[in-house]
Amino acid sequence: MAKYCILAFLLSLHVLPYSHAGGAGQATITRPTPGTSGSCGSPLTGDYALLPRAFFGSKLPSPICQKCLLINHGSQSVTIPIKGVCDGCQDEDVQVTETTLRKLEPGAESIPRVFWSIYPCP
């Protein structure tokens, strides 16, 4: 847990290049209630990612809310905005929309291991 708090702190200071921040974990589908917003303040619409709370630092909205997540699985990759906290995620797990997950692995409900990095959004 301390590793993630330090990472969130360094991200907030803009000392650590975002391309070096990342992890590997399970990707699952998020199914929010229509009309809700993520903890970054933006509506949960389109393709997006939710990360564990430890990556957000001590207050919201966090500087990480302005970033995107590059997710790799096999030969597939997607870049999507980070829109909030994934309350049920462990360590380096992520939640993504069904559309995003199906781009990475057609027909899957979850992917046991994806690799991801935080980058400035295009």
UniProtKB/TrEMBL annotation:
In the record, which residues are listed under signal peptide? 1-21
Q: Which UniProt keywords apply?
A: Signal
The reply to whether Signal figures as a keyword in the UniProt entry is yes
Identification of the protein by name:
Uncharacterized protein
Q: Which organism is it from?
A: Romanomermis culicivorax (Nematode worm)
Organism classification, top ranks?
Eukaryota, Metazoa, Ecdysozoa, Nematoda, Enoplea
